[in-house]
Amino acid sequence: MCIFCDIIKGDIPSRTVYESDNVKAIFDIAPLTKGHTIVLAKQHVTSMLEADEDYAAAIMKETAALAKLIVAKTGADGCNILVNSHEAAGQTVDHMHFHIIPRYKGDDVVELHRMPSDDPDEVFRLITE
Ligand code: 5GP
Ligand code: ZN
Question: Which CATH class is domain 3-128?
Fold first, then answer.
């Protein structure tokens, strides 16, 4: 049972703005801004953290092309490409998807809040050693 697999199969209707062998791009049901689109991977994989990297890269490539088109057509001032991976990062549907969120000056819809910083030397060692 996966809602995005049902959308890909066509069992649940969606506004499909673009489709290829790898992706189905649809309007988000609760858009953050005008043109907010989600690019669904056609193969079910939980998130980018579980995905084959070449597959994720292929989807990113199509997402980048689509983002250019959506920004041009909507007249947005910019966009966020957002990939939430796992619940801690805000993922609510466990099927890999990329958000294209067109941004309009002053809209304030996406804001990240900084945490107090850990010791950067320690974190650097943790990641690089
Ligand atoms: P996440 O929070 O997992 O990164 O994003 C899931 C997104 O899917 C949310 O922005 C939510 O509004 C959208 N969504 C959830 N269910 C549906 C649906 O049935 N149809 C469409 N078009 N979007 C959905
Ligand atoms: Zn799925």
Answer: alpha beta
SS3 content of the chain, % helix, strand, coil (to 5): 30, 20, 50
How would you classify the pairing of strands 78-82 and 97-103? antiparallel
CA–CA separation, 15 and 122 (whole Å)? 47
Contact 17, 93 (CB under 8 A): no
- This prediction's pTM: 0.95
Q: Which of 38, 40, 85 to mutate to test the pocket of ligand 1 (most atoms within 8 A of CB)?
A: 38
Neighbours of 81 (CB within 10 A): 14
Cβ-based neighbours of 6, under 8 Å, separated by 6 or more? 12
pLDDT for 32-53, tens place per residue?
999 999 999 999 999 999 999 9
pLDDT at 110: 84
Residue with CA at minimum distance from ligand 1 atom 18: 29
